[in-house]
Structure to design on (1323 residues):
């Protein structure tokens, strides 16, 4: 009885590849699948259109009077949990009925008997668990893509993870850093990495001490590497987060020591832009716009101009350091960001941009934010924050006004050297194809009915690219229509579109005082959806 | 030099990467020839690839090497989790597996526990042999081992272990490690379920009254855990409360403030449980909050919840919103609700729920979005169709005079490029939208223009439905629309039946009106011809179309009949409408559809007609009206008699129809609205005093942190004033504990009939243990006293 009574993993053809029963009785996979199939038939005429039974179903649903099923897709596999549902309301029981019988009489008692409290489960509890489990599994498998083969190969690891993550039908211990301490991974890769890290640490340490003119070679044995070698022998760590009560930072390992102290920040943003069609320029007969490479200065206001940002923090710091990370928000409104539990949110709400925290050892997601450029109160030139690639789609060109042009301009930025994997997907009305007339860079490719203008793997900044083309009907004759829309995707390192920067990053208390940690910041841009209409 | 150091480390880092990728390759591609040494090294980590024979498994399990044991265990676990119907095979190894339960290797132990938990009830006698070893682990030096042991012990589904389990819980409940106490909460849940599994018909309420019953004991244990100060323990204790004692508010009353004060430190899942519980609690047991004053408990809860808007878990935020809308609706403005919700919008399943929540809040006017926030709800081409659907729904809900152009442009774009499913959703939503006449006109124009080029049948039907609603709402304002629609009836043979039927119905309605202007007069004059064309293809039409043709003709003919009666003239039986009416009655009288025949007969009995008045007419009779009247004039007389009843027909067919009521697409019984429903009851003010007393009850706060050895932890401030804090000296985990083990027990009872009639004995033992226990407790008391004095 509870949230999660069993967990299944199925492949894309609805075949079970892993099952774990948390609490019996639990439904079998076959039963769950049959129920889902029958529900699907009720809703859709054609259940055969998709390979998996799940794709058309709600992520959380009651399959019968007793069981609720939740599922999610991770890479190539489906995670499914089923749990027995509770009644919506429960009566309040009270053991002091006897007292009431004597004096207050029937009135009060009747009142009591009818009191009920609701017990409806929050559906997102299931999804949260599935997401947590997915994150943990991927982290334990070193970020590998989950495939049926991978799941089967690591079945015992998954089981060990589940042993800690869920018990008594309820999520038990789901924090990644805590799990890493309870379940040290002893995969071969980790061994090699930890060993080489150790060598690397020793080497750099000796170089440092040489630099300081000290001839003494510290025989530094880092506690963490010692601990990891102990795990391989199945020996338990000497101290553990949970040894004693009163640990206020249960996400950080106890007695962390590193020979090389460093803290690294990854600032990643995903762009979501929608730009409406530019007004087509008056066609000047004879003069081709082909030579006019610049983008028109007049632009219509974007329909959507937003960024999703994530800050990852990766540290190896000794002791219990309180880190202060100051972001230059560039006057952006970050709304209500989400923080890792280690962050002091009060400090942020008083002075936005200052993130103060005691980090878990190793990598974790520090914060997530959303910037909606259209929502800012002070008027800003949103085009400054569009990222390093400027794009424009113009239709109705050429003598017959049946040509269109896509212009790309990679902005010159000091910190950005290359734009990676730049490509433009051209979405056309039904029954049409694209014919490229003039292409300055890259080439037009057609795959599975999707037409893409693909540019160099890494394109230098500060150049203009143009694609001039027209649409063809299935017969082969040209059409006066223009593409429905085009989407642009790329990634780049060295800047984020919001131009948010890390102003400073320092240890303000705790940690070892004499060691200055190595600091590094990485800015990465991805595209979620850049759409031109 | 520092540069050099950095470079070197980068170099080594690269080397690491390269090596790991080489190894990766090697693992994935077994054909790569590796040095034999490295191969052996690698195979160690990936021995689970191998299929083991039965003798190999047994050999491995009985080996003295941890590695070999683990290889076999991993193989078995893989069988257990990935191969259905592996049960018989695994059971055959069960004794060999259990043998390894005493291993000092944690990994081995974990794997053995997993197999034990899965199959213990199938080989009970062997499973019971492991109890002793698990009990020993309860006193292990390491807290991970102790926690694992109590969770495993409680997972064994053999009721005979219940006494041992209860005693074990009793000792781990005061363990110094929060992990073990948290595991104890899990064990309480499982112990309760095991116990009630074998007492199915027992009423928990009455069981709780008997102090010696297992539920009552567990209840008291849980009370202890709910008084803990460690958030890890509280989290598990709350889960336990939610699962097995959900109605026992007596556990909560005295601890309510204590629990709330720890809210932000709990695990996310338990935060949700506590917030949900507090929502109902506030309604039932706290005075109704007013804008000028709220209970202290609520103020504390409110302040704790404020910081949770920064949570990265959507479940916590939804739970928070549920609290505010049910308990403190007037404080909703104080939290940045819109921004807190939109931060979860992405392309995953969680987004579906957050969007549903937004729909729920919009319907109740609890949240508002500015025009600059509309872009959050613009559907994207690469997201789940469900998400796009909900976004469109929200956009239409947000439509206002200021943003109409903006949203309308977005919807037009979707109608041009989106999937059919989404287009349908857009049109349906627009059909239910009540806008100004200008807005409606623009929507109408859009629909009419789309009708021509649209090839998808369901979409056409939706467009026409929308236009129908429009015309029905304001006929003379939209007469052009109707004219164009009737044109489509004739010109477009591909029109979907639903669309066709809708237009014909509309024509019928129109014919009922008094024509006021030239346009409507012209259209009215055209109607007989239109009907003639429609009747010509009557037999080929779908049922819905046939019904509407019959209905429309009935309306027209009754209008004519009534008009002639009003003016006292004789009805013109040569009228086109009359002829068509009779023809269609004849068709429908012999139609294959029962419903259609029924309708036909009904109409035939009300209105004058030839088909039902003349018994000689049959399905194949072709009526030549001129000739017919000559032959059967008496039929016309009957018709004239029938004319007296024409008022009834007018009543039936010419009443003004109400415009369609928009059926809201956001169904109100989806899971979000169900979830947002708190208990319907409210506090009985007479009992408030009583509840205040309950809340003021003292309880023993369990604070173990005084004895911490962790250097970096600071003292937590004491928040609960009403409670007396007892700094419990954690029981020395390694202390000798004299619990008779199962092995001893088995020795005494002899080898056969292990558990039959053992009740007396175990009861006795329990008493002995109880005595031990109280002695221990005395020791404890002494210890803590000396602690205090020192």
């Amino acid at each position: 009885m509870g949230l999660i009574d069993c967990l299944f993993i199925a492949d894309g053809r609805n075949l079970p590849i892993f099952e774990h029963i948390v609490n019996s009785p639990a439904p079998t996979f076959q039963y769950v699948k049959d129920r889902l199939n029958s529900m699907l038939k009720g809703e859709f005429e054609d259940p055969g259109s998709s390979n998996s039974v799940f794709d058309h179903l709600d992520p959380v649903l009651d399959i019968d009077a007793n069981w609720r099923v939740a599922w999610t897709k991770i890479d190539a596999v489906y995670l499914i949990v089923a749990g027995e549902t509770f009644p919506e309301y429960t009566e309040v029981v009270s053991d002091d009925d006897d007292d009431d019988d004597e004096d207050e009489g029937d009135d009060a008692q009747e009142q009591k008997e009818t009191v009920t409290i609701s017990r409806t489960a929050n559906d997102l509890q299931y999804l949260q668990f599935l997401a947590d489990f997915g994150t943990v599994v991927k982290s334990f498998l070193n970020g590998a893509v989950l495939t049926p083969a991978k799941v089967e190969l690591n079945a015992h690891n998954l089981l060990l993870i589940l042993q800690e993550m869920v018990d008594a039908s309820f999520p038990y211990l789901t924090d990644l850093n805590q799990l890493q301490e309870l379940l040290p991974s002893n995969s071969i890769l980790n061994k090699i990495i930890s060993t080489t890290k150790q060598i690397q640490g020793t080497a750099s340490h000796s170089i440092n001490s040489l630099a300081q003119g000290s001839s003494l070679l510290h025989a530094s044995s880092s506690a963490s590497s010692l601990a990891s070698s102990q795990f391989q022998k199945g020996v338990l760590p000497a101290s553990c987060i949970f040894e004693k009560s009163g640990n206020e930072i249960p996400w950080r390992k106890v007695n962390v020591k590193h020979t090389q102290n460093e803290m690294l920040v990854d600032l990643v943003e995903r762009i979501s832009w929608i730009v409406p069609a530019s007004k087509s320029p008056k066609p000047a007969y004879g003069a081709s716009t082909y030579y006019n490479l610049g983008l028109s200065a007049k632009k219509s206001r974007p329909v959507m101009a937003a960024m999703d940002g994530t800050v990852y923090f990766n540290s190896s710091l000794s002791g219990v350091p309180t880190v202060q990370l100051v972001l230059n928000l560039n006057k952006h409104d970050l709304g209500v960001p989400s923080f890792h539990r280690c962050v002091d949110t009060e400090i942020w709400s008083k002075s936005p941009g200052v993130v103060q925290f005691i980090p878990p050892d190793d990598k974790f997601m520090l914060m997530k934010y959303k910037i909606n450029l259209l929502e800012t109160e002070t008027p800003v030139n949103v085009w400054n924050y569009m990222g390093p690639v400027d794009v424009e789609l113009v239709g109705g060109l050429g003598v017959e006004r049946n040509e269109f042009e896509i212009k790309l301009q990679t902005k010159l930025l000091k910190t950005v050297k290359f734009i990676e994997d730049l490509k433009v997907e051209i979405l056309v009305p039904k029954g049409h194809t694209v014919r490229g007339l003039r292409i300055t860079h890259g080439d037009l490719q057609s795959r599975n009915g999707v037409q893409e203008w693909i540019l160099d793997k890494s394109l230098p900044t500060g150049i203009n690219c143009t694609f001039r083309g027209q649409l063809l009907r299935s017969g082969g004759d040209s059409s006066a229509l223009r593409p429905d829309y085009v989407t642009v995707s790329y990634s780049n390192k060295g800047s984020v579109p919001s131009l948010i920067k890390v102003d400073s990053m320092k240890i303000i208390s705790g940690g070892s005082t004499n060691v200055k940690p190595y600091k590094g910041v990485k800015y990465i841009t991805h595209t979620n959806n850049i759409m031109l209409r | 030099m520092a540069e050099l150091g950095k470079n070197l480390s980068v170099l080594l880092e690269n080397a690491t990467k390269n090596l790991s990728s080489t190894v990766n390759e090697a693992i994935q591609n077994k054909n790569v020839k590796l040095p034999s040494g490295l191969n052996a090294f690698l195979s160690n980590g990936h021995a689970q690839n191998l299929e083991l024979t039965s003798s190999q498994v047994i050999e491995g399990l009985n080996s003295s090497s941890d590695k070999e044991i683990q290889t076999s265990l991993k193989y078995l676990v893989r069988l257990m989790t990935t191969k259905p119907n592996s049960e018989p095979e695994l059971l055959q190894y069960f004794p060999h597996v259990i043998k390894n339960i005493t291993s000092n290797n944690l990994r081995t132990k974990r794997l053995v526990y997993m197999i034990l938990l899965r199959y213990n009830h199938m080989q009970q006698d062997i499973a019971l042999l492991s109890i002793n070893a698990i009990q020993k682990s309860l006193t292990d030096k390491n807290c991970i081992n102790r926690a694992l042991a109590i969770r495993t012990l409680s997972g064994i589904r053999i009721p005979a272990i219940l006494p041992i389990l209860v005693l074990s819980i009793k000792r781990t409940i005061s363990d110094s490690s929060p992990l073990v106490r948290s595991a104890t909460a899990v064990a309480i849940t499982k112990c309760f379920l095991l116990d009630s599994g074998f007492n199915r018909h027992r009423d928990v309420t009455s069981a709780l009254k008997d102090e010696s019953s297992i539920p009552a004991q567990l209840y008291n244990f849980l009370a202890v855990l709910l008084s803990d100060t460690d958030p890890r323990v509280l989290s598990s204790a709350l889960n336990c409360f939610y699962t097995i004692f959900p109605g026992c508010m007596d556990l909560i009353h005295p601890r309510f403030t204590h629990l709330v004060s720890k809210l932000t430190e709990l695990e996310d899942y338990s935060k949700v449980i506590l917030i949900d519980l507090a929502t109902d609690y506030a309604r039932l047991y706290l005075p109704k909050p007013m804008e000028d004053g709220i209970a202290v408990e609520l103020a504390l809860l409110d302040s704790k919840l404020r910081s949770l808007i920064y949570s990265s878990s959507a479940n916590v935020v939804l739970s928070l919103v549920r609290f505010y809308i049910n308990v403190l609706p007037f404080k909703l403005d104080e939290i940045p609700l819109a921004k807190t919700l939109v931060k979860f919008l992405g392309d995953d399943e969680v987004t579906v729920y957050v969007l549903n929540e937004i729909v729920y809040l919009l319907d109740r006017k609890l949240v508002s979005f500015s025009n600059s926030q509309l872009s959050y709800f613009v559907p994207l081409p690469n997201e789940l169709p469900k998400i796009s659907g909900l976004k469109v729904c929200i956009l239409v809900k947000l439509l206002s005079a200021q943003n109409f152009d903006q949203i309308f442009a977005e919807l037009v774009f979707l109608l041009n490029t989106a999937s059919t499913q989404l287009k349908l959703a857009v049109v349906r939503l627009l059909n239910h939208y009540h806008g100004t006449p200008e807005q409606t006109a623009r929507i109408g124009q859009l629909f009419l223009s789309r009708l021509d080029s649209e090839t998808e049948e369901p979409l056409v039907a939706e467009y026409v439905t929308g236009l129908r609603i429009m015309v029905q709402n304001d006929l003379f304002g939209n007469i052009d629309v109707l004219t164009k629609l009737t044109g489509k009836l004739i010109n477009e043979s591909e029109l979907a039946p639903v669309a066709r039927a809708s237009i014909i119905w509309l024509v019928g309605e129109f014919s009922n009106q008094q024509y006021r202007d030239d346009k409507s007069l012209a259209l009215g004059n055209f109607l007989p011809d239109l009907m003639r064309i429609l009747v010509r293809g009557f037999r080929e039409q779908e049922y819905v179309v046939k019904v509407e043709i019959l209905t429309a003709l009935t309306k027209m003919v009754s209008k004519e009949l009534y008009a002639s009666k009003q003016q006292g003239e004789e009805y013109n039986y040569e009228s086109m409408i009359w002829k068509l009416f009779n023809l269609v009655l004849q068709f429908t009288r012999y139609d294959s559809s029962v419903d259609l025949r029924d309708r036909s007969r009904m109409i035939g009995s009300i209105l004058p007609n030839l088909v039902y008045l003349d018994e000689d007419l049959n399905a194949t009779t072709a009526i030549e009206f001129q000739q017919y009247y000559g032959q059967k004039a008496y039929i016309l007389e009957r018709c004239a008699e029938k004319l007296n009843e024409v008022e009834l027909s007018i009543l039936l067919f010419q009443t003004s129809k109400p415009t369609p009521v928009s059926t809201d697409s956001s169904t109100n019984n989806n899971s979000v609205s169900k979830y947002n429903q708190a208990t319907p009851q409210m506090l009985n003010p007479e009992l408030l005093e009583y509840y205040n007393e309950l809340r003021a009850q003292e309880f023993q706060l369990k604070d173990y942190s005084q004895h911490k050895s962790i250097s970096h932890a600071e003292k937590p401030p004491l928040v609960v004033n009403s409670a007396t804090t007892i700094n419990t000296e954690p029981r020395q985990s390694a202390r000798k504990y004299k619990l008779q083990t199962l092995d001893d027990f088995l020795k005494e009872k002899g080898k056969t009939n292990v558990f039959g009639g053992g009740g007396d004995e175990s009861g006795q033992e329990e008493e002995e243990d109880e005595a031990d226990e109280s002695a221990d407790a005395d020791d404890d008391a002494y210890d803590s006293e000396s602690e205090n004095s020192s």
